[in-house]
Amino acid sequence: MKFQYIVTGAALAAVTAAKPHHIHRRAHAHGLDKRAAPDAIVYAPAATETKIIYWLDDHAISEEEVRQGIANGTLMWGDDGVLSTSTDRPVALPTPLPISKEEAQPAKSVSELKVKEPAPAKPKPTEEPKPEQPEPQRFAPPTATPARNDAPTPSWTASPVEQHDVSSTPWAGLIDKEGHCAECHKVFPNGTIPCTEFPYGYGALPISHEGLGGWSGIQDPQYAGADGFDDITTVVKGSCSDGTCCTTGSFCSYGCPNPYLKASFPSIQGRTGQTVGGLYCNQDGFLEMADGSIADTLCVEGSKRMTVKVHNKLSKSVSFCRTDYPGTESMTFPLTVGPGETGFLANPDLGAYFFWEGKATSAQYYVNKQGVPENEACTWGEIMKGKGNWSPTVFGTSWDDLEMHVGFSSLWQNPLCDQERLNYDITFMGDGVVAPCSYKQATHEYCQGDKCSTDPLKGCTASVGLGRTLTIVLSDG
After folding, report:
1. What would be the CATH architecture of the domain defined by 302-475?
2. N or C, which end of the chain has less CB nearby within 10 Å?
């Protein structure tokens, strides 16, 4: 069975006599959530469900048969991988790209839902709208998917980017050299901090470049019912640098320094697959943990069973940008490593973190080119500019504590811009890392061990053993 890449970030099996023969990827019925921005509509694909079929000689066999075969010796480990994990392990997919300038459909009247009292009107944006600005503004109920507007395909050789000094970053002061954040373990005092103030001192990472007073995003569901939220208004980037857009009834999202994860999100989510996260602004105008929170702290540690680091051997800085999930699903949580620096990445335990429609989710990062400033890398980017959600490469990672009890980390080409390429090499390194991934800038190949492909649709997935560390090394090759 060949070790192959799948979008879920869970590795496929690698047994000499058996191999996955077909990999089917299908979106759930709710498929696409349409969000209207000032000049564009953003289509957000729901998490992808992956089905794996194992093929032995001329017939399909079940995963249980594969497991038993490995156990009793009738099947053997291949030289290029490890045994498969579950067939339905999704990854948190962020809202991708603006692809149309059509008007959003008006929200449907939902009689069966309880309608909340209208929240105070949000302040108008304080800056002029920019052309093709892709920040989502509102969720609308699902409608028919319009035809995709095909943009001209650029050459992989994108224009060079200017290097900025990004050594002064807010997350650097929160995390020590062992990846520990003392503030992140302080219990959050519900109902004492006004919604107009960012909750400093409890591990939350302020995101200044979003222009929302440190919040990474602000969502205000206009409808709420037993079956979820709908018509979710998302405050536009740059609307309130003082944070006053976080008002009663809103969920105000925040980042956590890697390797920590956001702990506060509501127990119900979007009716059509949208996700919502952050602190809740209550009727008295004070912040409190949402009712689905997984801790009494704003941030929780990622998996203690494996560690993920990034080491930069380049002459310029590189930003890995984690998606705000659950939440606005924008790529706003930064890890920027300068030349010679090493940083941690958050890596969740599948069974202990957020479940989307009953399915476990992993952490996902957009990997930017070297030299892109953090405030341009970790935000919505312009179409085909090679930054933000248009960055060339995506990295996903998690520890499977549900079935396989092993870590899985994946690297693949960003499907939004399959002609963009990173301007450096990536190599997975570490003892206990099986079938390590790599990317070679000279040949534009993604490699699984020593097997490489120039096909942008093929990525790679490595497994990581218990107690081991995966180090993602960035170099000139």
Report:
1. Sandwich (2.60)
2. C
Q: Which residues contact 451 (CB under 8 A, 6 or more apart)?
A: 80
User: What SS3 string covers the chain?
Assistant: CCCCCCCCCCCCCCECCEEEEEEEEECCCCCEEEEECCCCEEEEECCCEEEEEEEECCEEECHHHHHHHHHHCCCCECCCCCCCCCCCCCCCCCCCEEEECCCCCCCCCCCCCEECCCCCCCCCCCCCCCCCCCCCCEEECCCCCCCCCCCCCCCCCCCCCCCCCCCCCHHHHCCCCCCCCCHHHCECCCCCCECCCCCCCCCCECEHHHCCCECCEEEEEEEEECCEEEEEEECCCCCCCCCCCCCCCCEEECECCCCEEECCCCCCCECCCCCCCCEEECCCCEEECCCCCCCCECEEECCCCEEEEEEECCCCCEEEEECCCCCCCCCCEEEEECCCCEEECCCCEHHHCCEECCEECCEEEEECCCCCCHHHHCCCCCCCCCCHHHCCEEEEEEEECCCCCEEEEEEEECCCCCCCCCCCEEEEECCCEECCEEEECCCCEEEECCEEECCCCCCEEEEECCCEEEEEEEECC
Higher pLDDT, 351 or 156: 351
For 121-157, write each residue's pLDDT tens digit. 444 333 333 333 333 322 222 223 333 333 333 333 3
CB 368 within 8 Å of CB 333: no
Q: Which two three-digit tokens encode residue 238?
A: 């740059």
Structural domain boundaries in the chain: 1-30+49-89, 302-475
